[in-house]
Amino acid sequence: MSTAIGSKNVKSDNKLVTASLILGGVVIAAMMIFGILMLFAQGGVINVSDAAFYQFLTIHGTGMIGAAALAAAGVMWYFLGKYVELSKKVFIWFLALVLVGVVLVVIGVFSFEYASAWTFLYPLPAISANAWGVTGALLYLFGMLILGTGFLLLYIDTGRAIIKNYGSLGKGLGWDVLSGKKRVEDAPPKAVVASTMVTIVNVTALIAGAAVLIMNIINVINPSFTFDPMLAKNLTYAFGHIFANAIIYMAVIVVYELLPKYAKRPWAVTKLFLVAWTMSTVFTLLIYTHHMLMDFSMPKWMLIMGQALSYANGIPVLVVTAYGALMVVHKSGIKWDMASGLAFMSMLGWTIGAIPAIVDATIVVNHVMHNTKWVPGHFHMYMGLGAVVMLFSFMYYLAKIDSNVQETKLDKFAFWCYTIAMMAISIQFLVSGALSTPRRWAIHYPGWMTPAVFGAIAGVFLVIATTIFIIHFLRYVKNRGTLGSDLHEEKAA
Amino acid sequence: MKRSFIIGSLIFLILIIPPIRIYMESMMIIHMLVQLPLLIVVGWCIGEYIENKYPKLFELINGNGVSGIIIFVAITMFWMLPRTLDEALTFPIYEIFKFISLPLAGFLLKDSWRKIKAFGRIFIYLNYLSMFGLMGWLYLDSPIQICNNYLLEQQKTLGWGFIFITALMVLYVLQSVFTDQSEEE
């Protein structure tokens, strides 16, 4: 069951995956520029109108999450496709719908000045104090709906394929192994376990998202239709938090697949690994409530659950994966290159990036810190130094196995430049949070400005490093199919 | 085949009997969640017979099932709007349209369901799952009376009806994805 299926047409599969990675990578780099502009504006270096700042904030958040999810979905599709039969047609539809969604969102934000931030929290889309109109809100909301539909199609296909191959999603998570019906040696591969988890949580998130988006659309068209704002917030975060969280669970597959190959050591699936992923499936679905810790009208038990499960969620997969990665690499004589280096670095980013989130998930801390820049400090480290680094790692991996494009000293420079810059950006956010600097504010008091300027300068280096990564990947795309490394078992077969 | 045609026709005849029709339409939840689905069932039953009689015609107009399912979705969405439900009670032309369009929707659903394959079926199912959840929320949460013909209380009852169906649909999804499907094959 766990053996890889012969890849039918590796080249054409790679083409689709590279399309998602190029689009994702370029959008991520472009969004970094908006991030820099916002930080310079907050630091008082440049003048950006308030309206433009919030448009930047909206596009930065939406673009980063959307682009990272798109590229991570490409990574997941690539590796899952080795074990189950996925539909290329569906992936093309997925790419097309995401593209249409992105275009609508961009038009909504920049042509119609829509600026509710990517959380589009009800009733903000309809009540903008004339900052934007109905058209902008509808373009954004429909754009998100179409984008979500694209992702839903993809996950329906992954779910279908996993069920077809393994019998059920439970078996995809290895429950039959845990219940003793199957030997642990016959457990599904790590890529399948992770993909099953992501399929479950993201289908749930997208259904919740579709409901709340349509509800917002109804409210924008006819404001006399009102809804319970608390339920709307729950659904919004059940969508947004889970969807954003799942990015790293898709991207981490590259670490699982890549490190054992480089270290020439097996990274076997164990019962502990399966338990950890099942626990993470449940926790990821439930911990969005840590976004509600300041909402006094929420049931108390949900808030306690938000805190307790947020603590717990850090442990299973993260510890199993980070510890597993260390064990695979330790004294293995691994040959470090860009792909393996980035994969390993992402473990660091994921581990340390989760800590500020766990701190913020503590109710008493949350009341003070949640609306400060402490939270962007968490997710910039977690995503920027964790998930996105995994995506870059995959880009280098693909270039290595499918082309003769060589890594240069410039790439190594980019590696360290990216790591230090991303660390600097995250730390300036955390420091700002510690200084009680509010987040999502266009204007800062002088006392808050220094970290923002520092972050913006670091951001410039980040863009330079990211551009080098993307250029390397584009060089691969140009030379695709030329002789690559023997790490690629399908090509060798 | 003929049996399903007779059953479908019989249900249709029962549904158009004035006292039954008026009784069903007097309660919002029965109007929306009993009468409307039954009209779709009528189309499904009759469809089986007609489909067998004119297979080539259906191959021509609904070859892969996509056009049929899109029309089905459009018709059902139209009838899920509170306003259309209201209009059906106010304007006879809407009422007639309801008794024609919904059997047609059922008829197209029957023809399209097997053609759109598992992937399409899951997509449509999940689409309706979120739509029913949303409709439940809309009817439950709306502080205003949405239909002229139904009171706020009736609206809320319908809302709970939708939530109940959504819950059943979620349970069905859970049992389908977490029970072993390979043993059935």
Short account of what is shown:
The complex is a heterodimer of chains A (493) and B (185). Chain A has 493 residues and is mostly helical.
Structure overview:
- The complex is a heterodimer of chains A (493) and B (185).
- Chain A has 493 residues and is an all-alpha fold.
- Chain A has one domain: Cytochrome c oxidase-like, subunit I domain (Cytochrome C Oxidase, Chain A, Up-down Bundle).
- Chain A has 18 helices and no strands.
- In chain A, helix 1 runs antiparallel to helix 17 and helix 3 packs antiparallel against helix 4.
- The longest helix of chain A has 33 residues.
- The radius of gyration of chain A is 22 Å and the shape is globular.
- The N terminus of chain A is likely disordered.
- Chain B has 185 residues and is mostly helical.
- Chain B has one domain.
- Chain B is built from nine helices and no strands.
- Chain B is globular, with a radius of gyration of 17 Å.
- Chain A: This is Cytochrome oxidase subunit I profile domain-containing protein.
- Chain A: Keywords: Electron transport, Membrane, Respiratory chain, Transmembrane, Transmembrane helix, Transport.
- Chain A: It comes from Ornithinibacillus halotolerans.
- Chain A: One of its GO terms (molecular function) is cytochrome-c oxidase activity.
- Chain A: One of its GO terms (cellular component) is membrane.
Write out key terms for the chains shown.
heterodimer; A: 493 residues; mainly alpha; Cytochrome C Oxidase, Chain A; 18 helices; 0% strand; disordered N terminus; B: 185 residues; 84% helix
* Mean pLDDT value of chain A: 92
Overall SS class of chain B: mainly alpha
Question: What is the multimeric organization of the chains shown?
Answer: heterodimer
Structural class based on helices, strands and sheet pairing of chain A: mainly alpha
Low-confidence stretches of chain B: none
Radius of gyration of chain A: 22 Å
| Count of spatially separate domains of chain A | 1
What pattern of helices and strands is seen along the backbone of chain B? HHHHHHHHH
